[in-house]
Design a protein that fits this description.
Elements: H1 23-34, E1 37-39, E2 45-47, E3 52-54, E4 57-59, E5 65-67, E6 74-80, H2 82-89, E7 105-110, H3 117-126, E8 131-137, H4 150-164, H5 170-191, E9 194-200, H6 206-211, H7 217-235, H8 239-269
Parallel strand pairs: 2-6
Antiparallel strand pairs: 1-5, 3-4, 6-7, 8-9
Helix pairs in contact: 3-7, 4-5, 7-8
Length: 270
């Protein structure tokens, strides 16, 4: 039984080494089809082999499961038998065969973007003095003809129809979601009152400094780094990049928190 819906999901064929079928395997493959995940074993591989080898027989019981849309990021899949690992480490006969595990080692390479913390912090610092423009909509007065125009209803119906006949993968769903956002955004621009709001990321923070005598220029710089790192984290649409951005945000926030008590104590002592 395949681990995807044939004719709908477009996935490379899997190199199968274990052709024994059972009810658990069918349930497992059906589950993978329902959650849009697939088996990496036998795909994008350097070597494919049994993952369980003993005197009782051989089979594939250990798997790497990946989402459909990220399959191309997992490459160089490899199954290494425990006996091969022992032979590459010890001289032949130096290790008692009964102590060799009967499960093989599975490994692969995962390609992803990596961001340097210092680069992201410098980028955050470069945005401190910028003034950003936002459009604020008055959502308290939504008109009665909201999303009722013939053209808008037609677009929504077409979107639903396209979604029902799509490939049902995460990328396609994301694209349809973007289309829905654009439809709603156009409706907001045409029917809701709005005004422009300008947000300046100043470096002085005079109001805060006047009310808190322990506030200093060093805290101002650290606080601006925290704010900038948080903006980068929250506004990044890429899930993987957001994880790295959140790591930078947490790191800068901890640095600020460590300096804050020190500044308060300095004022109290003086």
């Amino acid at each position: 039984m395949p681990d995807f819906i044939e004719g709908i999901d477009i996935l490379p064929e899997r190199n199968v080494v274990d052709f024994t079928n059972n009810s658990y395997g069918d349930i497992f493959c059906e589950f993978l089809s329902n959650v849009n995940c697939c088996i990496l074993n036998g795909r994008n591989f350097l070597s494919n082999d049994f993952t369980f080898i003993s005197t009782r027989g051989t089979s594939v019981v250990d798997y790497c499961i990946v989402p459909y849309e990220y399959l191309n990021k997992f490459v160089d899949f490899e199954v290494i038998r425990a006996q091969s690992l022992v032979n590459s480490t010890f001289t032949t006969g130096a290790y008692d065969p009964k102590h060799i595990p009967d499960h093989s080692l599975i490994c692969w390479t995962f390609n992803t973007l990596v961001y340097d913390d210092q680069i992201m912090v410098r980028h955050a610092q470069s945005t401190d003095n910028e003034t950003t423009e936002h459009v604020k909509f008055d959502t308290r007065n939504v008109p009665n003809d909201w999303l009722t125009d013939v053209e808008v209803v037609s677009k929504l119906n077409q979107l639903i129809l396209d979604l029902e006949h799509s490939e049902n993968n995460q990328l396609e769903i994301d694209n349809k979601y973007d289309e829905l956002v654009n439809i709603i955004q156009d409706e907001m621009n045409s029917k809701l009152d709005k005004r422009k709001v300008y947000c300046a990321d100043g470096i002085s923070n005079k109001r805060r400094k006047m009310k808190k005598p322990w506030w200093n220029d060093n805290l101002t710089v650290l606080w601006n780094e925290v704010c900038a790192a948080e903006r980068i984290w929250r506004k990044n649409p890429n899930r993987n990049e957001r994880k790295s951005a959140r790591h930078v945000f947490v790191k800068t926030r901890k640095t600020f928190d460590k300096k804050l008590p020190t500044s308060e104590k300095t004022i109290l002592v003086s």
